[in-house]
Amino acid sequence: MCPSPLFLRANLRTMDKASVTQELTEIFEDVMDLDEVTLEDGTTANDIEEWDSLSHVRLIIAIERHYGIKFSNAEIESLKQFGDIVALVLTKAA
Amino acid sequence: MLFNSLEFVFLFLPFTLAGYYLLIRAGLRDWIFLFLVSASLVFYAVWNPPYVLLLIASMLANYAVGLGLERLRGRGQASLMALGIVLNVAVLFYFKYANFFVDNLNAVSGANYTLERILLPLAISFYTLQQIAFLVDVARGEVRPTGVWRYATFVIFFPQLIAGPIVHYKEMMPQFFGRRLGRFATANLTVGLAIFAIGLFKKTVIADSAAAFATPVYDMAAGGETIGLLAAWRAAICYTIQLYFDFSGYSDMALGLARMFGIKLPPNFHSPLRAASIIEYWRRWHITLQQFIVAYMHQPLVVPLTRFGAERGYGKWQMFALTTAAPTIMLFLVIGFWHGAAWTFVVFGGMHGIYLSVNEFWRTYRRKRRKKNKPGPRDMVFYHLLTLVCVAAANVVFRAEGVDDAIRIWAGMMRFSDLAALPSVLPANAAEALTEPMLFILVAVSLIAFFPNTQQIMGRYHPILGWAKWRAVALPTIAFRWRPSLPWAVITGVVLFLGVAFISRGQTEFIYFNF
Amino acid sequence: MASDSGAHADALSHSGTLPRRRGRFLGVVAATFAACMVLSVALPHDPYIRYQSFKGTIFDRLSWVYDRLYHDNTPIDVLFIGSSRTARGANAAAIEAELAEIGRPELRVANISEPASGMDIRLTKLRDALRAHPEIRLVVLGMVEALPRDGHQAFGDLATAGQVLTAPWVINRTLPENLAALPFRQIELALASRLPDAFGYRAAFDPDAYPGPTPDHRDFNDANWREIEAAKLSSAPRHAAELAAESVMRRREITPPVLPDALAWAEFGVSRSYLQDMARLLEDEGVEMAFVFLPFYDGYDEPLDADYLRSVAPIWSAAFMRETPMNYFDAAHASQHGIDLLAPWFARRIADTLEPAR
C-alpha cells in the first residue's frame, strides 16, 4: 500500500499541483477501494458514495503517512472538497 | 410553553412576531435581540422559572470561556477548552445523571445514599451540546465570539432552544446580523407558516394518534403481562411511527417558526424511515445530533486510533475492529445515555452501535461483489424492511419503562406460535377501522414510504440550511411541491386547522423534551 | 449563508408577483381556517353521545341523566340540580317516600346533580329537562357557601355548540378553552354519532344498564360506600375530630369576594349570569324555583351571598344538621343519618311549595 519512504522523499522535491493531484487520486482509490475515479477540486463527499466520515479519516491518515505530515483535528474537519486536500498537502509538504 | 399549545399559537407567537417586525420597521435593530432573548426567556420560564437562571448562567459562563479561548493559544487554550467542556458536562451530569448514579450505586453496594430528586432542566441536553460545539469551534479558529447579546440570541432563540436542531454559531450569526434581516417578511411568514402547519399536523394528528395505539401495550408490558405477537408488533410499529412524527413534527415546527423570523435552521430529519440501511438511517435521523457526533466526538476519537493502527501496520479487519466497530459502539453507548439516565437508553445505544458496525462490516466485506451485480428491486425492498425492523426493535427499548418490559415485547415479537390462531388483522367493520391500528398503520406507512417529506414539499423555497445537499436525496414516489397558489392556500388552511383543532384532543409533550 | 437566505426569498418574490400576492395567500389560509372552524362547529351529532362522553370521569352519571330525561317517561314534579352535596343529600327515593307519608304520593322527584358547583352546566341540563319533561313544577338548585367564580369544568363538553358560543364573556375564564376545544369536540362527536361502537358509546337506550328513575347517587361515587361509612362512623370521637379538622380547612379555603360589592357582577359574572338565565326561563315556563343550602360540618347557617340569592329565589337552609358529626359522612356530605333527617325536611318544603293539583 505505501511506497518506500526513500522514493517518497525524492518525489517531494518536485511537488506541483498536477503530481499531487495524481498521487492523492491513487491514495483515494486505494483507501476507498475504487477502481477509476475522476477527482476534481470541487468534488465532495456528496459526489462519492464511499466517501463518508469513516473513510475520510482513513484517507487523511493515509495521506499523512504518505507525505510524512500531520493534520490537526480542525484541519481534518475543515477538509470538505478534494481541492482543499490538495491545497493543504501542497502547503504542508512544501 | 409547548409549540402545540393554544397559548403559544394564539398568544405568544403573534405577539413575538409583531414585536419583532415592528422593531425592525422602526429601525431599532439594537433592540431586536434584547427583545428576542427576553421573549425566549419568557417562553422558557412558563415551564420552570428558577431554571431560567441556570440557562442564563450556562450561557454567560460559556461565553466567558469562549472569550478566553479566543485570546489564548497552544497549551493554555487546550486546558481552558478541556475545563469548559468538563464544566458543561459536569452541570449536565449533576442535573441529569446524579439520581441515576446514586440509585445504581445503592442497588449495587447496598448502601443507602440519599439525594433528593433533581428535576431535569428542560433543554439542558441540547444547549449543553450546542455550547460545547461553540467552544470547540472557537478553539479551532472557525468562529470568534462577537458580543454577548449575539451569543445569547444564538443559545436562547426559542424555536431551537428546547430540543434542537443543534445549530452552529457560524451558520446562525450571518443570518441574524446580516443586512437582510427582516426583508421578504411576508414571504418568510408564508413559508414559515406552511412548514409550521405541517409540523403541528404531524404532532397532534399523527403522532398523538400513534401514541393512542402504542401506549396501552407498553403499559401492559410495564404491568408484567405477557405480550402476544400482534400486540408486540403493534407496539413496535406504532411507537416508531409516533417517535418519527413527534420529533420530526417538532423539528418542522422549529424550522417553520425560525423561518417566520427570517431565519433558516439546519434539518434534523430527511425521510430516515425511507432508508435502506442503518448507516443511511443515521445520516437522516436527528441529523444535527449525528453531525455533532461526527465532528466533535467521532473524529477526535478515531483519528488517533487510525494513526495508531497504521503505525502498527494492522491489516484490514484489525483496522476495522479498532477504528470502526469499537469507537462506533462506544460512541453510541454514550449517545444512548445522553438521551436519558436509564439503562434502557444504554441498551438502545448499544443496539444501534452494533447495527452500525455490522452494516459497516457488511459494506466493507461485500464492496467488490456489490459493484458487479447491483442489488435488484427485490433486494432493495428487503433492505428497507430489514432496516425498519431493526429500528423498530431498538425503539421498543427506547420507549419501554425498563429493560425487562422491552424484553417482554421483544419476546412477543418472536411469538410466532401465535400465527396459527391469529385473528384477522383487517378491520371487520367501520368501527374497527378506528379502534384497531391496521388502517392507521397503513396510512402512516404510506406517508413515510411514498410521500415527500416536509422540505421536499417546501422544496421551491429553500426550507432548510444546506438544502442543495439534500434536494436529490430520498426522492418520493409521489411528488408534489407547495406553491403560493390558491389550492395550496386552501390545503395549508385545512392542515393548520386540523393541527390546531387536534391540540384539544389533549396536549402531550414532545418526546424529546425529556432528553 | 446570508446570500443563500436572500436568494430563496428573491426567488419567492419573483415567482409570484409582489408581496401583495403573499398577503392574499395568507388571507386565503386564514379564510380557510375560519371556514373549517364554522363547518366543524356546524357538524351535527346525537346529544345522547355528548351525555355519554364522560365515561371514566367523576361525571359519568351524566349518561344516566340523559336516560332519565329522555328515555324514562316517569313524570318529574320536582327536579334537583346541584353539586355533590345535593346529589347525596337529596335522596329522591327517600324524599318520595316521605312525601307519600304526608299525603302527597303523586309527587315524583328526580335528582340530576353531579359533582362541582359551576352554574353554567345547570342551564344546559335544565333546558334539556324542561324540553323532555314540561310537567316539572319545581326546580331546586343546590348552593354552597359562595357562588363559584368560574364555570363548571364539564360545561365545555356537555353544552351544545350554540351554548358554548353564546356563553357570557364577563370574566369567564373557561370560555377561551371551551371555544378552542369546540372544533375538535364537534368532529369527534359527529364521528362518534356515526360509529358509537368505536368510542364505546351506546347508540340506543339499554334498559339493563339503567338504574331506574331514583338511583342512589352514592352508588355513582363508590360501590363500597356502605363499608366506608361504617368504618368512618365506628368511632364517634375520631369521626368528630376528623370532621372538625376538615371543617377548619374548608373555612380557610373559602376566598371572600376580592372586588367590592359593586363589582360582584363581574367577579361572579358567570354564575350570576346563568342564575338569572335560569330564573328567567323558569318564570317564563311557570315553574317554581328554590335554592337549597346544605352546610358543611360546623359551617355557616346560610350561604355567604344569601342576600343576592334571596333576590332570585327563596333559600332552604339545612342549618339544623351542621353541628352533629353523625349527620356527616365527611365534612361536606351527608351520612345515612343526615339523609334520613333531610328527606322529611325536603318533603315538607316541597309539599308547602306545591299546592295539591285541583
DSSP strand count of chain B:
0
User: How many structural domains are formed by the residues of chain B?
Assistant: 2
**Straight-line N-to-C gap of chain C:** 91 Å
Question: What is the count of helical runs of chain B?
Answer: 21
Q: Mean pLDDT of chain B, rounded to whole units?
A: 89
Helix content of chain C: 40-55%
Spans of chain C of at least 5 consecutive residues whose pLDDT stays below 50 are: 1-18
**Overall average pLDDT of chain C:** 91
The most extensive interface between chains reads:
B-C, 50 and 45 residues
Q: Per DSSP, what share of the residues of chain C sits in E-state strands of 2 or more residues? A: 5-15%
Global structural class of chain C: alpha/beta
Envelope shape of chain B: globular
Can you give me a brief rundown of this structure?
The complex is a heterotrimer of chains A (94), B (515) and C (358). Chain B is mainly α and 515 residues long.
Describe the structure.
- The complex is a heterotrimer of chains A (94), B (515) and C (358).
- Chain A has 94 residues and is an all-alpha fold.
- Chain A has helices spanning 5-12, 17-32, 53-67, 73-78, 82-93.
- Chain A is globular.
- In chain B, 71% of the residues lie in helices and 0% in strands.
- Chain B folds into 2 domains: 6-184, no CATH class; 189-514, no CATH class.
- In chain B, helix 1 packs antiparallel against helix 2 (29-45).
- Chain C is an alpha/beta fold.
- Chain C has a 5-stranded parallel sheet, with helices on both faces.
- Chains in contact: A-B, B-C.
- Chains B and C meet through helix 8, helix 9, helix 17 and helix 21 of B and helix 1, helix 2, helix 10 and helix 11 of C.
